[in-house]
């Protein structure tokens, strides 16, 4: 055993030397640019310019891509780097085969070159998401065989949570996935996502979306009048216009859009004056409703007859005195009064780059801090929408 370990250590050292000197293997060494979303090897940490190198990874100074070493195909009888690494991994026990989390370089995980194993996207929590349904076989029997092989492989390689996406067009696979111990996680109009927790400890996969998000637009003109509506379902209950946030939409954009759609009044976002959290709103999910101060850019009303019964500009004092509105709207009337007369400003929106996804996001705050230097992506793009 000691002799075998010594040989493996020497072989590992040789392989690591290969990545810098390229002198251990006769295959041609090439460098491939691989985007963040398409991985050649599997890392257990989120890849970034500061992540320590793995077998294949070199940091790229421009932070836009990562460079990976691989070997070109060759008819030479000399074993390739990949072949040698595979030999190391298969010569060890399951425990020995896995390198430490920060160094594990599972080259097989995201390639097409391992028949019968579903490829997926690894995450920083040692999980895997299988969402490319083009790799699924056409018949259910073969699909079940591949799924069983994949589960065995993931367990062997210490994967934890597995997410598998089944499109509506291949719904006949759903019973097979359930039989293999997967549970329903969430469903959309064109797919269902199922999950399986592989370790023996407590399932730590997160629940699906826990809240709905809504936004109301508090619009006050130069006459200290507030823009109010009544809905067709409740024609006597005055409220500020607003509605649900669309997928991928910012809070500040939602408020502006909803006011425009319901009243025809053009506005621009100013600040978030407050928000309301409600439990067990729909489908046992919560609701968070943001009250946004908007600056009017027009005053003419052109209400949506499909949803809105009435729309008008009303003096703020009258809105505050109206006892027939809902408690939420009464609280909003007091926010409106503080905003219009007592200098309350609320939380402004500052755009910053997003470290978790591409693009920018908004930080809502009540300070005068300047965040302009934190915009790294599309700095000239104006996302603080107006209508």
Automatic annotation (TrEMBL):
Gene3D superfamilies: 3.40.630.30, Nucleoside Triphosphate Pyrophosphohydrolase. Keywords: Cytoplasm, Hydrolase, Mitochondrion, Nucleus. GO terms for cellular component: mitochondrion; nucleus. It is found in: Cytoplasm; Mitochondrion; Nucleus. InterPro entries: NUDIX_hydrolase-like_dom_sf (IPR015797), Nudix_hydrolase6-like (IPR003293), NUDIX_hydrolase_CS (IPR020084), NUDIX_hydrolase_dom (IPR000086), Pre-Nudix (IPR040618). GO terms for molecular function: ADP-ribose diphosphatase activity; NAD binding; NADH pyrophosphatase activity. It holds the Pfam family Nudix_hydro. The keyword Cytoplasm applies. The keyword Metal-binding does not apply. PROSITE patterns: NUDIX, NUDIX_BOX. Signal peptide: none annotated. Residues 210-336 form the Nudix hydrolase domain. Its main location: cytoplasm. Belongs to the Nudix hydrolase family. May contribute to the regulation of cell proliferation. This is Nucleoside diphosphate-linked moiety X motif 6.
